[in-house]
């Protein structure tokens, strides 16, 4: 049976600036990757050189039959020093947007995707009361320059990510399955202490006062992140009233077995429901999902030993996406954009199967009246996976990093055929 998606559905793939562009030298991640004794598997370097090869990459995306591209503008490039904006950087992103539009590809622009300017971290980072105004100033500058070319903007990628990172690290410290997802051997205490001492020295701060976006968050820090979103939204509305505004959240499909219902309810509140007041004035929500989390009487359960897993250690469970969309829609009456969904695997047949099963769930949601407006696969390119370096392959396109040659995978053409026909 053919499953038809609505006319005008957005089909595409996502990237993040630091993971693909290369030479993001003013960012906090660049500094931390390149320290002696770094816990990063390798530095990002020129990454996959997307800063130079963006036209080729967008052209490939369009050639597959996809009609949308979600990418991020890098704050550390736009404002490498506080209050000093780089015209060459803004001109570059104008060229990216124009390339999208010239190829009939709708750009969906993220204004902050994990990496931050080094000066912001030195000024208190994502725990500082001044960060919302600083972020709004940057967003306002970008939208004054480029807003007429941006139909959709995502202010902050995975604004709730610190909650999930803290849980992964806690599970690993307890002997669980979290190490693959963060790339940090948290049992190597001496190395961790030495590394964070070096991080502090590099930023000129005590280690406990280095507040990057990926770091542990206090309740105040979470509030700073979401207030940054609301202040940015206010600024963008004035400057670019036709741009539709949202943010994205990282959401597990949270399930429970008997006795785990209270833990699951707490997890949904912690990871999603508590943020609903910040989303009321948004135009849409970006939903990002990769797997499920099951709770029992004693808390989160490990991935079953007999379950298929991805390179990230996640359970292979594409049905999670549809379940998350259903839960979110019960609590938030907004259009939903799937801004990330995918798997890290070197077996592309499993990626194709994942796409099909995930999209069946999305289609069922749409058939039931849930307003899902697009699906952005993660990721367009095999890229730099933060602390894990280039070891995890999420992309529809493989990259030979010695030559930067692009090698589309069968999954790219498979998703493109679905997109071209709006049917599965």
Question: What can be said about the biggest beta sheet?
Answer: 9 strands, parallel
> Fraction of residues in helices?
40-55%
In the CATH scheme, the class would be Alpha Beta
* Count of individual beta strands: 14
Note the run of SSEs as H and E: EHHHEHHEHHEHHHHEEEHHEEEHEHEEEH
**Amino- and carboxy-terminal Cα gap:** 9 Å
Low-confidence stretches: none
Q: Mean pLDDT, nearest integer?
A: 95
| Global geometry | globular
Q: Mind telling me the C-alpha Rg?
A: 20 Å
Number of helical segments with 4 or more residues: 16
**What structural class do helix, strand and pairing data support?**
alpha/beta
For this structure, the CATH topology is TIM Barrel
Strand order of the largest sheet: 5-4-3-2-1-12-11-8-6
Number of domains: 1
Instruction: Kindly estimate the percentage of residues that lie in beta strands according to DSSP.
Output: 5-15%
- At CATH level 2, the architecture is Alpha-Beta Barrel
- Could you name the CATH homologous superfamily? Glycosidases
Protein name: beta-glucosidase
Pfam families: Glyco_hydro_1
Keywords: Glycosidase, Hydrolase
EC number: 3.2.1.21
Task: Describe the structure in your own words.
By secondary structure, the protein is α/β, with parallel strands linked by helices. The protein has one domain (10-163, 186-251, 339-421): TIM Barrel (Alpha-Beta Barrel). Helices cover 42% and strands 14% of the residues. The strands form 3 sheets. The chain has a 9-stranded parallel beta sheet. A 3-stranded mixed beta sheet has the order 7-9-10. A hairpin with a 2-residue loop joins strand 9 and strand 10. Helix 3 (50-64) runs parallel beside helix 5. Its EC number is 3.2.1.21.
